Amino acid sequence: MPDSTSPTHDREYGFKTRAIHAGNIPDAVSGARALPIYQSSAFVFDDTADAAARFALQKYGNIYSRLANPTVAAFEERVASLEGGLGAVATASGLGAEFITFASLAGAGDHIVSAASLYGGSVTQLDVTLRRFGVDTTFVTGTDPKDYDAVITDQTKLIFAESITNPSGDIADLEGLAEVAHSHHLPLIIDSTVATPYLNRPIEWGADVVIHSATKFLGGHGTTLGGVVVESGRFHWANERFPLFDTEVAHYGGLNWHGNFGEYAFLTRLRAEQLRDIGPALAPHSAWLLAQGVETLPYRMQAHVDNARAVAQWLDADPRIEFVNWAGLPNHPHFERATRYFPKGPGSVFSFGVKGGRPAGQTFIESVNLASHLANIGDAKTLVIHPASTTHAQLSEQQLLDAGVLPGLVRISVGIEDIEDIIDDLDQALTAASKGE
Amino acid sequence: MATDTLETVQLSNGLTCDIPSSSPLAKLLKSQRTWVGPSAKERMSILQKAKTVAIVGASPNVTRSSYFVATYLDQSSDYELFFVNPMADEILGQKVYKSLADLPVVPDIVDVFRKGSDIPAVIDEVLAIGAKTIWVQLGIWNEEAAVYGESKGLTVVMDRCIKIEHARFHGGLHLLGFDTGQITARKVLR
Description:
The structure holds 2 protein chains of 2 kinds.
Chain A: H1 15-21, H2 48-55, H3 70-83, E1 87-91, H4 94-105, E2 111-115, H5 120-132, E3 136-140, H6 145-150, E4 156-162, H7 174-183, E5 188-191, H8 196-199, E6 209-213, E7 227-231, E8 248-249, E9 255-256, H9 257-261, H10 265-278, H11 284-295, H12 297-316, E10 321-324, H13 335-341, E11 349-354, H14 357-367, E12 372-373, E13 383-385, H15 397-402, E14 409-413, H16 419-435
Parallel strand pairs in A: 2-3, 2-4, 4-5, 5-6, 12-13
Antiparallel strand pairs in A: 1-7, 6-7, 8-9, 10-11, 11-14, 13-14
Chain B: E1 6-10, E2 16-20, H1 24-29, H2 40-49, E3 52-56, H3 65-76, E4 80-84, E5 90-91, E6 94-97, E7 109-112, H4 119-129, E8 133-136, H5 143-151, E9 155-157, H6 162-170, H7 172-175
Helix pairs in contact in B: 4-5
C-alpha cells in the first residue's frame, strides 16, 4: 500500500506545476484543497515546554502571525520554489522586503553599493531613511560591474540592483555583478519585481538574495500589497564582513546563527530578528490573494511579454514616437544582454517618449481610455504614468537623470487585454497628443 | 548547437535533478564532492522506518545544535531517543549513556555530532552494535568514512541535519517559508 506521506518520485516538478502546487498540500485535518486562510493573530501551544522550545527556535511551530502564519508560509514556499531558492520571508510590501533585508545586513557606519537606476521608493529608502540611520549608499550610474567594484569599501555589506530597471528598461549584468560581489565576500541582492521568476531567476545567475514587490506581477491583478525575500542558501554568511552571523546571540539564549542553522541562517535570522523587531508582516488574506495570483503567473507573464513585444514594435515604427526603451528591441543598448538573461522577453514594463516633449506626454496620458493612469505596474490591465510628476517626483533633477527618467517620458505596463484594443487606445491617444504640436 | 550532457545536481531544496551540464545552474551547483548520499525520497524513507534514534555527541548545553535537534525530535517526532556522551549525565530529563555499546537497544539511526576525523571510529562502534544507519550531522564531512561505512553495509547520510530533514517532510520547514520540495495532492501529516 502506498504510504500517503511519501512523494511518488524524487522529482523536480516543472514551473507551471510548482506555481500551482508548491507550498499548498491539502489540509491534514479538513482535506481542504484550496489554500485555507488562517486569519488568526496567534496560535496555541501544546504545553509550556512546547512554548519554550518554539520561542527558543529549537522546534518549528507557529507562535504569532507577525513571525509566521500558515497561509503566508504557503505563499513563501511557492515563491521560493519558483525562484529556486532555499526559502522565503514574505512582507507587507516590496519596500518592507527591502528594508528588512538591508536592516539585517547593514547598520550605522556600514555601506551599500546600489545601482542608481532604481524604483524611486527604493532610492529614497536608501538615500533618505537608511542614510539618516547611518547607512551610506553609493549609487552607481550604469550597469558596468567594474564601476560597482570600484566603490566597494571595507564597510560595504551588499550590492543591490534591479534585474530590469524601471522605467529606463536597462538590464543588469547579473553574472558580472555576482562575480564582483563574491570576490569581496559580498552578497548580490537583486530586485526582480519586473522580471518575475518566469522570465529570469537571478539565483541561477549568481545572485544570493532576490526581492520582489509581490504587489506587481506575482499577485498580478492590482489588488494586494506584498513583498517577499528569497535567499539561495549558498552564500557563506559567516565571513569577516558579517560578524553578526557568527557570534553568540544573547536574545536567543546564546545560539549562533551560522553554527546552529548553517545554510538556513540568513532566512531564520531575517524572520526571527528583523520581522520580529520591525514588524512588516504580510497579512494572511493578502498572502492568499497573492498565492492565488502566482498560480497563473506563467500564463500571465507569457501574455504580458507577447503583448509588450507587439506594443514596443508598433510604437518603435510610429513617427509620433521619439524613442522606446524596451530591451527586446534590437536597437536597445542592452538587446544582447536581454536575449541572454531574458530569452522569453525582458518584461512588459518600459518607457517611451512622445514627440513634443513634456506637454505632448501629458496630453497623451490624459487621452488614453483603456489604459489606466495610475501609479502601479504589473496589473492584468494596461497601465500608464508620467514618472517625472508621480513615482519619481521626490527625486532631484540629477537623480531623475541618473534613474533614466526624461521629463517627457511615459511609462507603460502592458496588460493582457486583446492586443488590438491596447494598440487602438494608444493610437487614438497619440493622435490627440500630436494635435497639440 | 552542440549536444549537451546531463548532470545530476542537488538543488537547494534537497531534491536532485538532471540538467544540462553547461547550464548556469549546473555551474553554480557544481560540487567538488564525489560522494552524494541518499536522495530526498530515500532520506524520507529512512526517517519514516525508524523508531529509535541515538544521538552521539548529544550535549546538555542549550545553545548547541545537538540540543536543538534533541528538543525538536523529543517534541515533534515519535522517535524513542537515546543520548550518548561520556561527559554528560542527563539531557532533557533522560539518562545519558557513555557509549553506543551501553544502549539497551540497537537504535535504527545513529545520529552523530562529532568532528569529521572521528567519524571512522564512530562507524566501527555503529557496526559493533549492529545498527544499520549512521546519520552524520550538517557541517560534518568525511568522504572516505562515508565510503567505508557503505562498504560495510551501512546506510550513510552525511552533512545533513536530521531535524531539518524530518521537518522537511513533516511540515516544520514549510511553516517557516522554506522550500520543502514536496508537491502532492494527498493529505500529509503536518
